[in-house]
Amino acid sequence: MFHRFAPARPAYLRVVRANAWYDLVVTAGFTTPWSLALVHDALSWVGDALGLGVTPELDPMQTLYANLMGSVVVIWATLRMVRPLAVHGLFDGIARTLFVTWMAYALAHGVPQWLWLFLVVEAALAVVELGPWLLHRDNRSTDGRPGTADGRLLGSASQ
After folding, report:
1. Which 3 state secondary structure label does DSSP give 155?
2. 16, exposed or middle or buried, with CB in 10 Å at 0-12, 13-18, 19+?
3. Which of 77, 107, 144, 153 could form a disulfide with 20 if both were Cys (CB 3.0 to 4.6 A apart)?
4. Of 72, 71, 78, residue with least CA distance to 33
């Protein structure tokens, strides 16, 4: 299954770009205090309607961190949409693994249960992005390092 999406193949770069679009759509609302308030209210409403818990009221420090995270993720997503490279998929998969880890930690400490929905999606996208790197030995350059200095893999299609 993963062979079709090996990092050196164009299909993998389409995965990198599609995951970037997902990140942009899900995260854009976190970039400003005003859009965050709307996202916060929507998540609370959905959580309450589904019986999965409401989101605690925002304070200025939470807003700051959410806006910083949203801004960085939107820029990172834009880079992956404009210039998807195999190495971007590798690093994005690692970042998703960290996100899943911290979401699991938060869920273990009492955050609303609707966070499971995001955790499952993030874990699935991490597997899709990291699986090809873990399963293919032919994705290394001749010196044993993944890819080349510009982020393309040896033998991959040119950008």
Report:
1. coil
2. buried
3. 77
4. 71
In angstroms, rounded to a whole number, what is the distance separating the alpha carbons of residues 89 and 68?
22
Q: Name residue 146's beta-bridge partners.
A: 140
Tokens 């998807």 belong to 84
Among 26, 155, 140, 151, CA closest to 91:
151
Burial class (CB in 10 A: 0-12, 13-18, 19+), 19: buried
φ/ψ of 140, rounded to 5, equals -115, 150
Give the length of the chain: 159
Decide if 136 contacts 3 (C-beta within 8 A): yes
Phi, psi of 146 (to 5 degrees): -65, 130
Q: pLDDT tens track of the chain, all 159 residues?
A: 555 667 778 899 999 999 999 999 999 999 999 999 999 999 999 999 999 999 999 999 999 999 999 999 999 999 999 999 999 999 999 999 999 999 999 999 999 999 999 999 999 999 999 999 988 765 554 334 455 444 554 444 444
- Could you please report the per-residue DSSP string of 3-19? GGG-TTSHHHHHHHHHH
- Greatest pairwise CA separation for the chain in angstroms: 55
